[in-house]
Structure to design on (666 residues):
């Protein structure tokens, strides 16, 4: 390991291990984001696809197939499929959130317009769909169709539940599965399915992706209340200001007395926020240990992810995926 | 026929002939637009699905399968698939066009918001995808994946080409295939494929849907310049005011002298429209016979649709589809 200075983080090790495959995924992505007739499509897509994302989701598919000894070509197709679905949801999310920035760059809806983001997102969904049909596996199609429905359902649920104090941890989990975990678990599961892995291994891959995705999103929501804006690219308290009900606040609300509940109703449900409210929110989160308890949940999901991998054979990639689960929660532990 | 007063229009005859099947399609649509977690989804979907559309696209699938002697269940799934894809594109179109009305009712983006329209559209796409996976036919999936890509590509192309005087009839045709014909032709083609029809019949069904869809859209664009607002639900000249370059204007621009070209550049490309400009546009369309020549194109496509059906066996539904092609252009002939 001492020679391996360039790749010390788990996702970098994965990328180094999968580098030949990832190059082919990138080539396929570039080929399939072309449009003979509408040059706007590759422009908008390139802005996002080339923006230096970690390619985490396609790596999960490649890693799962690699662990299961896959020798074919379709892991490349499925990795590109997963990245296209992810990119399509980002385009639509930015329209829905009226975002102006993503990964420190202006969003496509700002550079072009909302129309382009909606329609290019639709195009990428269709392209993803074409790619997965090429694998010829109905089971893969079924998994990805169900994941797509879960994603869209989670997003709609978030729209209606985000500012509603009646939102429970169960509903939050449903939203998180839609926003993040459904695509993680589909990414790992299809890697196993395409390899013809045993059913208990496919199940383990699904469980790993599901738990990793949930841990990932909980950490993201936690960092909003305790991160450094330099590392997260967000400002502390953005979710509070945008009245997004995430796990820390849900935990605090569940234990709120009448006065505290009135505070959350005014600031989150009614959106009447005043000077000092963010400090007060922190005080209430602190009073109920909400950030610590959220952190424990994230660690619990990361452990669940690692436990799932026990079903899989010993493999260098398995170790990288175990490390990845630790890494995802390391920022808050 | 004299007893058949209730159903004199071809699409009404089709609906009467297919009534049992259509009821099952409607039941399936209602079942699949449910969401356990996000009640906003069926609300938005019902607004559009129950709004009294003619169910033309699902009827095309049912009719094609019926003509080809299909005896299974999956024509119902595919008809619902096609309607879901159609509904999803309507939801996204209304966001893109910033529309406030569709079929004489307020649009979903106005009643709820753009966010709901984008996300519920995504949900319906996913639901469509799940329905077609259930048929177990990779060929059907391939056809519908390609149709979805053509639809999205056509919409993006329209976004960039609509106000560009360099738009040719070829580009217009590409846009029309995306907006309308791709789903018509996929609807008829999958009806044949699911029935195990002979290849020349499947090709004929595709050609019929393609030509019918093109005729349908050209008529729509023509009616914008000569329709009665009572029958079309649009005002004469809306496309001109919205600076949408459609076939009549494309034909007039192609024969424009310098002065006329300056007029179109000012009004369509630059959007500088003044009192009397619509009258001047009509005068230029008239000078180059653009409306008559557009009408001839529509009739040509309707005839092409009818000719395609010669490949198919004599059948009461075939006659209804022949009549439907005539009916589509009857409003302008």
């Amino acid at each position: 390991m001492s020679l391996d200075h360039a790749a010390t983080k788990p996702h970098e090790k994965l990328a180094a291990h999968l580098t030949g495959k990832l190059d082919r995924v990138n080539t396929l992505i570039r080929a399939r984001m072309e449009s003979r007739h509408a040059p706007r499509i590759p422009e908008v897509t390139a802005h996002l696809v080339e923006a230096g994302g970690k390619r985490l989701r396609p790596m999960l598919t490649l890693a799962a197939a690699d662990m299961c000894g896959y020798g074919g070509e379709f892991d490349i197709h499925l990795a590109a499929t997963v990245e296209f679905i992810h990119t399509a949801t980002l385009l639509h999310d930015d329209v829905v959130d009226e975002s102006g920035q993503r990964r420190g760059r202006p969003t496509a809806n700002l550079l072009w317009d909302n129309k382009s983001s909606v329609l290019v997102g639709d195009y990428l969904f269709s392209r993803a769909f074409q790619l997965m049909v090429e694998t010829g596996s109905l089971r893969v199609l079924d998994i990805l169709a169900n994941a797509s429905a879960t994603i869209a359902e989670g997003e709609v649920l978030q729209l209606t539940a985000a500012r509603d104090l009646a939102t429970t941890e169960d509903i939050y989990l449903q939203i998180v599965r839609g926003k993040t975990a459904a695509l993680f678990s589909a990414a790992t599961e299809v890697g196993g399915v395409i390899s013809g892995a045993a059913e208990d291994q496919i199940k383990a891959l699904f469980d790993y992706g599901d738990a990793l995705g949930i841990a990932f999103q909980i950490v993201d929501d936690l960092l909003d209340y305790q991160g450094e804006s330099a590392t997260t690219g967000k400002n502390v308290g953005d979710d509070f200001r945008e009245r997004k009900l995430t796990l820390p606040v849900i935990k605090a609300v569940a234990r709120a007395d009448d006065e505290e509940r009135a505070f959350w109703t005014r600031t989150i449900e009614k959106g009447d926020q005043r000077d000092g409210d963010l400090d007060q929110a922190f005080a209430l989160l602190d009073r109920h240990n909400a950030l610590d308890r959220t952190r424990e949940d994230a660690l619990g999901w990361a452990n669940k992810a690692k436990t799932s991998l026990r079903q899989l054979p010993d493999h260098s990639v398995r170790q990288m995926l175990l490390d990845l689960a630790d890494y995802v929660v390391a920022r808050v532990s």
